[in-house]
């Protein structure tokens, strides 16, 4: 599963973090992001329609790799796997969730914000962790300091990332990709402004991972 996650993350420097109020806008947003060049998508499980949106994108949008985000409970793991999620991401980790994630048939990437959390994950064999909330926790400089003593762990910073600072994170050693909602703003989704989302994706897809 680690190799599968590495392969997924290497497809794209930016993973859109997406929140949908309905399935139809999820499908259109996913198409716009794909057409703009972002093909790895994280659909957060934080709205009543999120599971339906995740399923609709998986079933209806070709050429994208779709995972579930904001996975907080073992039930989320099971539901997301049932609809076909390719990967699972959590802002943090609990022992119940870690157990469910490691039993899942698809890669699970938990979140960390400190050296101790990162070391606990590494001890359990993790290779990839979400670094969350990246900006408020301390940004690229903090991450650089965190990575220094932990050379085997790779990170996906998320939280407060924008087109302006994304490259600063991507320049840090062991950063596989960054995640963020800036490529699919709530207003653009609500207004059906797919052209705006396509343009934001195009800009973001030009960023370069190390
Ligand atoms: C997440 O769940 O990863 C974050 O809420 C995304 O953070 P952002 O909205 O600051 O990009």
Automatic annotation (TrEMBL):
Reaction equation(s) it catalyzes: 2-dehydro-3-deoxy-6-phospho-D-gluconate = D-glyceraldehyde 3-phosphate + pyruvate
Record GO terms (molecular function): (R,S)-4-hydroxy-2-oxoglutarate aldolase activity; 2-dehydro-3-deoxy-phosphogluconate aldolase activity
PROSITE patterns in the record: ALDOLASE_KDPG_KHG_1
Gene3D superfamilies reported for this sequence: Aldolase class I
Pfam families in UniProt: Aldolase
Cited CDD domains: KDPG_aldolase
Top-level EC class as recorded in UniProt: lyase
Alphabetical UniProt keywords: Carbohydrate metabolism, Lyase
Cited InterPro entries: Aldlse_KDPG_KHG, Aldolase_TIM, KDPG/KHG_AS_1
UniProt pathway: Carbohydrate acid metabolism; 2-dehydro-3-deoxy-D-gluconate degradation; D-glyceraldehyde 3-phosphate and pyruvate from 2-dehydro-3-deoxy-D-gluconate: step 2/2
Documented EC number(s): 4.1.2.14
Subunit and partners: Homotrimer.
Protein family according to the UniProt entry: Belongs to the KHG/KDPG aldolase family.
Protein name: 2-dehydro-3-deoxy-phosphogluconate aldolase
Organism field: Methylopila henanensis
Gene, per the UniProt record: eda
């Amino acid at each position: 599963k680690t190799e599968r996650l590495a392969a997924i993350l290497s497809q794209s420097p930016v993973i859109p973090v997406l929140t949908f109020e309905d399935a139809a806008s999820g499908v259109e947003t996913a198409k716009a992001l794909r057409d703009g060049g972002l093909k790895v998508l994280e659909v957060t499980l934080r709205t009543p329609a999120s599971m339906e949106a995740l399923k609709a994108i998986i079933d209806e949008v070709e050429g994208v790799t779709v995972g579930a985000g904001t996975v907080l409970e073992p039930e989320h793991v099971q539901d997301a796997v049932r609809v076909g999620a390719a990967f699972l991401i959590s802002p943090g980790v609990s022992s119940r969730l870690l157990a469910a994630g490691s039993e899942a048939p698809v890669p699970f990437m938990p979140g960390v914000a400190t050296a101790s959390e990162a070391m606990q994950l590494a001890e359990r064999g993790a290779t990839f962790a979400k670094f969350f909330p990246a900006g408020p926790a301390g940004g690229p400089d903090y991450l650089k300091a965190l990575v220094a003593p932990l050379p085997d762990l790779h990170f996906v910073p998320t939280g407060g990332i924008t087109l302006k600072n994304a490259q600063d994170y991507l320049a840090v050693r062991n950063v596989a990709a960054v995640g963020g909602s800036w490529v699919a703003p709530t207003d653009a989704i609500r207004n059906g402004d797919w052209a705006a989302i396509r343009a934001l994706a195009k800009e973001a897809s030009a960023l370069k991972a190390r």
